[in-house]
Predict the 3D structure of the following.
Amino acid sequence: MAEPWWKTGVVYQIYPRSFLDTDGDGMGDLAGITQRLDYLSDLGVDAIWLSPVFTSPQKDMGYDVADYCDIDPLFGDLADMDRLIAEAHARDIKVLLDWVPNHTSDQHPWFVESRSSRDNPKADWYWWRDATREDPPNNWEANFVGGPAWTFDDTRQQVYLHNFLPEQPDLNWRNPEVVAAMHDTLRFWLDRGVDGFRIDVIHLLGKPELLPNQPGADDPIGRVNFFDFDDTHEILRGVRALVDGYDGDRTTVGEVFLLSTKLVAKYYGNNDELHLAFNFPPLFAPWDADVWRKRIGRVIDEMPADAWPTWVLSNHDQPRHRTRYGNHEGRARSAAVLLLTQRGTPFLYAGEELGLEDAVVAPEDMVDPGGRDGCRAPIPWGQADDNTMLDLYRAILRARKNSPALQAGDFAWIDSAPGTLVYERTRGDDHRVVAINFTDEPKPVLLPEGEWRCEVTTAGDFTGQLTPNEAVILR
């Protein structure tokens, strides 16, 4: 049987504000994405994921949604989105939207009504408690701004929960009316033809009714892993059933920001929760063969056999991997091979294929509340002319598209020299060997028996020995 596209394909993340501006207002827009679809088709990606483009006051760059069923004028309108979806599908490119179900904007009509009194029809759509900000109901802290994750509202004379900015109140998913309303927002976009959703901070949705104190709140890792409540899994099963009710292999990929592969694995459920879940520990892995062997090994050992992994090196929330790897050309080139040859679905972040590092943004010019302006800077499209990094990505993606082994094959380690990783991907009669040198010294490669020829190399002609920081794909 043919695998679903979300297993064999490559997803390209677009941060719309920074992608391409076509109307001269200094902000990227949907028309700019549509204009670049031929470029993306030529690059060889199979799907695009758009960071939020819904109506928003932009306090958190669109992750504060005021209307889930309309487009913010910054980016265009519903007709522009319909055109983008149609043009992408004409090029056999899928479209994923960024769905933000944990919280809305405080300007969303739901919250405006909820805060208006204690007995209105939406009074229980958010988390309200009798308390003060100085003496909050629990010790949870808000992301970005710090301090209690509670803000006092003068009208209701109560505090409301916001795990992020005060302008981003958390929805109460224990209320069936909230579940129904949010399911309707999914149907709205699925009916318009989108192919699925990247789901923001999915692990935060299922909060226990008593909202217990967080143990070890001064430990950042413990703080993240604390928000791993069983209540979330029933919510996910409902979302999965809804999405699976549509044809065309619609999909969900969840942002499960738990820095433990074993914990992330739970969010696949029994093939009845997320289709895909982001596994973020590789985002924090240095350019080191031993570390990467452990990271890959964790996925092999801790993911259930029927749970399809994801791989990501850069995104809109973290420094670009070229910056993290010391702005080293050879490492950045080999990282492309590493990312695109793993067993699982790779996610590229717009600009990776151009070899971009984080932009240097003066403090007075920063607009993002989380200080992520460097990785969210506008794409300098002039770099796409005669760009050897772009040529490399095209070559790797072409090799992947022509290889069932690289798309969905089995993975097996091959013994290799210190400072290198060598592995084989196999599906039926198709075999590929990938060899990566993480060091600044030449390294030998011991290949399985047979005649192997080089399909892709990051550093000139492969002669049977890896040059410093070289990676190769052999067939």
Remarks:
- The chain has three domains: 5-102+175-409, 103-170, 412-474.
